[in-house]
Amino acid sequence: MKSIYFEGDILKIGLIKVMSKFSKKAYHSKISPIKFKTFEDPKLPKEDWVRVKNIETGICGSDMTFYTCAQGPSTAFLPIPCSKITYLGHETVGEVVEVGSKVKNFKVGDRVCMNKYMACCDLKGYDKQDECEMCKAGNYADCENYGEPSKVNIYAGAGMGDSYLAPEGQLLSVEGLTDDEAVLIEPFAVSLHAALKRVPKEGEKVLVVGAGMIGLGLIQFLKILQPKCKVYVMERNPNKHEFAKKLGADEILVGEPYEAVKNATGAKMYGKGGNRMLLGGFDVIYDCVGKRTMLNDTLRWLKAQGTLVKIGYQMTKTKFDETPIWWQGLTIIGADSHGMENYNGKKISTFEIVKDMMLKKQLITDGFITHRFKLNDYKKAFKLLIENPKDTIKVVLDCTE
Ligand SMILES: [Zn+2]
Ligand SMILES: [Zn+2]
Q1: What angle do CA 240, 244, 250 make, to 5 degrees?
Q2: Residue 171 Cα, ligand 1 centroid: separation in angstroms?
Q3: What is the domain range of residue 84?
Q4: Looking at the structure, do residues 27 and 163 belong to the same domain, yes or no?
Q5: Is 353 within a domain?
Q6: Nearest ligand to the C-alpha atom of residue 142
Q7: How far is the CA of 57 from the centre of ligand 1 (A)?
Q8: pLDDT digits (tens, 9 = 90+) for 66-76
């Protein structure tokens, strides 16, 4: 088994943090805690597990966090014990090549994607009756055993490699979809999950900040869920504007952000320079950027009683002015990955909804994948993402040799 993985080696992480300040080349150098190695093929750890051969895998922002050692020393993740090795790649499509004797839903030759990737009861080999409340409800990304030891060799590989092992509950069949559609299910599920956290109401003005992969997906889902809302988009890169409009954006905000928000919503603006405040503003803001100063601004661009859905993130402590939250009665909703949704009156996983929409050809999928690299050239792929040229949306690794 060949796999790209992150080794939680404090010394190497520290070195990368220092060296990368001088040269970005440090990320791709020998001191990087990202390794690409060949192991002896592990055996299936339980009879309800399968082996999957990867076809292609998208690179996610979370993979980038590992590659660039972006996590600061004071995030909430740090105190939680976790495996020393993290295999990269969860936006993946592959083919089942081996099944354990108790596998019910898959056979050799089935094409699948990875439905779960955050450490959860299922991936840790817990029996069904011992799963935590969150996992039992299908919200595996909120697992309460996230920090508990695994009963099996969790994450025996993942999407960035030639193959991986998985309990069958981790997988979803993607029969009927092309490889390029299947590889987009996961990032689309992230966008849909965020949209379903706060679906716009008829007539509402909502703002999507950041038109990268997740923001672009979100625009599309917001318009599907509520065709009668007005979706505004704030994105500095003009190369993304046309695509955002094609996906349903009504208007792109251009120019100075506070002025643009004021003009779009008719809000009243007070103050100047670094301390401006709007009264009036957007009903909902979906922040897909999450950069350091963003929270400070988005809270001021919301109408009183408005909602901020926070999807973009940074892995370090931040400072922001909290006064708009209580003064304006704002709601902040965090959105991460995917899980079980209440959708059209039934409980269904985010992945299933996206897959169904793809099968029914309700989603635009062309145009999201902008670059492709061979698995062996993964460093070139990450280098491109770090440089982030203007036409980059989703970069995919071809895992077939
Ligand atoms: Zn992802
Ligand atoms: Zn759990």
Answers
A1: 135
A2: 15
A3: 2-119+155-184+365-398
A4: yes
A5: no
A6: 2
A7: 10
A8: 999 888 788 88
Return d(Cα 248, Cα 163) in angstroms, integer: 37
User: What value does the mean pLDDT take over residues 248-258?
Assistant: 96
* Residue 83 domain-assigned (yes or no): yes
Render pLDDT for 173-193 as a digit per residue (tens, 0 to 9): 999 999 999 999 999 999 999
Instruction: Give the closest ligand to the alpha carbon of residue 185.
Output: 1
Whole-prediction pTM value? Answer: 0.95
The CATH number that applies at residue 275 is 3.40.50.720
Pair (164, 222) in one structural domain: no
Alpha-carbon distances of 59 from 65, 126, 370, rounded to whole Å: 11, 29, 12
pLDDT in tens, 291-341: 878 899 999 999 999 999 999 988 888 889 999 999 999 999 999 999 999
289 & 393 share domain: no
Coil vs helix vs strand at 198: coil
The number of distinct structural domains making up the chain is 2
Q: Residues of 338-370 as b/e, b for ≥16 C-beta within 10 angstroms? A: bbbbebeeeeebbbbbbbebbeeeebebeebbe
The proportion of the chain whose per-residue pLDDT surpasses 90, expressed as a percent, equals: 75
Residue 95 lies in a domain: yes
